[in-house]
Amino acid sequence: MIRSDWQLNFSQASVITFGLLVPVHVFLLAWIACRYSPAADESAHLVAGLRIWTEGKFDVYQVNPPLVKAVAALPVLLDPPQINWQLLTTKPGDRPEWLLGLSYLREHRPRFRWDMVLARWACIPFSVLGLAYCFRWGAALFGPSAGLLAASLWCFSPNILGNAALITPDVAATALGMATLFHFRGWLLQPGWRNAFLVGVLLGLTELTKFTWVILYVLLPVLWAGQVLFSRTRFHGETSLRQQGLQLLLLLLVSLDVLNAGYGFQQTLRPLGEFEFVSESLGGGKTQSAVPDTDMDASTAPHPDPLPGVPGRGGNVFRSGCVSALPVPVPAAWVQGIDLQRRDFEGGWRPLYSYLNGEQRLGGWWYYYLAASWMKSPLGSWLIAGAAVWGLWRSGLSISFRMELALLLIPAAAILVLISSQTGFSRYFRYLLPAFPFVYVALSGVWSPQVVRAAPGAAWCAGVGLLAVVVGSLSVYPQSLAFFNTIAGGPQQGHLRLLDANIDWGQDLYALKDWQNAHPEAPPLYVAYSGVADPELFDIATQDVVLPLGDEMFAPGWYAVSVNRLHGYDDPGSPWTRFLPLTPVGRAGYSILIYHLAEVGP
């Protein structure tokens, strides 16, 4: 029977968190960084980061702000590669990062593996920051043991591990968003100019990671107004409402200053009417596709993603209005990035298919992220969730702690509602990552002293759930990106549920090379790969594929087929779907299945 007074003190929990969990987390991420081949977006991010440092420009990969790619490029600057900037185009709506990234991989074959590893390692501190703030918030709210539970959930989450090991902004945005809201909570508890300034700096850094967090400019004032209206005791303090309002204004202004500094103050205060927008909502009228303006045609790219952008017809719904001359207090590249992101969700760049449970279609589902959460979350986390709801209900938390829970769950719910409302496409479960740490901290309340006393069984269930999370996550490691829980069929059957970055993001070419080395009897090997890099760049011996005509089957031989290709993802009617009913004889990671078509006798 669990003792009702069982709790770790802060020193003990801190030693376990920072002396054990942090080193384990760093090791897990560092090894994944060595094992994954460049994922679909990574070479583009790295090239964009190099352009920031070497050219001082922010015109590549504008759909993501610059912080993470700039950090990723830092170690590569010790011996900067030469990039063919002649591939860069400047038409409104262009997406040149794909060709630039592909060109970088082709022209720097001897070095790109270690460039990528070093760039990934440079991003690991972002994930450590997220782990630390899970501990801090959980400990501050529910006690040190709860902080340890929240930190453990972050440390071993397969979705955090799979994405934090890459040069992508999702986990960095998650960690910095968590830090911003933690210190915003501190400002609500103890309003002051210093606390407001700190929140402003963190908010600015958060806005430099991912456009999702633009909602904070609405969410923070709403949360402040809510505490003023509903909790004038715990969250008020000695500061007058007028001073609090001025401090809130200060933190918003400081955040804008940090945001502008992150772009080198380039084209800040540009008049709104001077922008050329390509999204329907900002440009006015339908965006139109155009053929790529480049010498590299589509046949050189292994997947539609590497194609350059399709420039739309530039426009501006504000140009003829009274706000046309209004100076925009943020960098022009940030505004243009939001516009490009809007066009993506409107389907104006290229047709973006969505896939869920065997159905592929143009346009997404409002419930996609809820369904993906059920499939991509370890079953142990659902056990913890059930135990936490039971335990917190039994413990009868006070109104002040309900307000604290609201500060956690409102941001998580806002993120879910925001991304679920964008039904132009539903492809990336990683878009939901910024909600994760708030849920982890809320669930950690099951190890609070109140719950342990009121419902010790719930605390025990949470312990079992945590063990299940660790075992489930490590059972697929280092293929954490492809994690699916047992009910969803595990990573072996995950491609029947979700595709793209949820299982097949081009990360398994090194695994395919290992498989080929272990099977010398397997030539010729035909490869249908859906990432950005050519398999030949990884010394994988391949044979050119002759696509069959009509209903014919492929020629006899060995075939390595990406699960995206297997389902005709982004290419309905693809002949590669003919392999789907067949039984694979092997796999490389969980994203590439191996088939052997034998000779048919006379």
TrEMBL record:
Protein name: Dolichyl-phosphate-mannose-protein mannosyltransferase
Pfam families: PMT_2 (PF13231)
Ranges annotated as spanning the membrane: 12-34, 118-140, 160-184, 196-225, 245-265, 366-393, 399-419, 431-451, 457-477
PROSITE patterns for the chain: PROKAR_LIPOPROTEIN
Signal peptide boundaries: none
Organism of provenance: Planctomicrobium piriforme
Region described as Disordered: 283-306
Listed InterPro entries: RgtA/B/C-like (IPR038731)
Origin organism lineage: Bacteria, Pseudomonadati, Planctomycetota, Planctomycetia, Planctomycetales
Superkingdom of the source species: Bacteria
Domain Glycosyltransferase RgtA/B/C/D-like: 119-225
GO MF: glycosyltransferase activity
Keywords recorded for this protein, A-Z: Glycosyltransferase, Membrane, Transferase, Transmembrane, Transmembrane helix
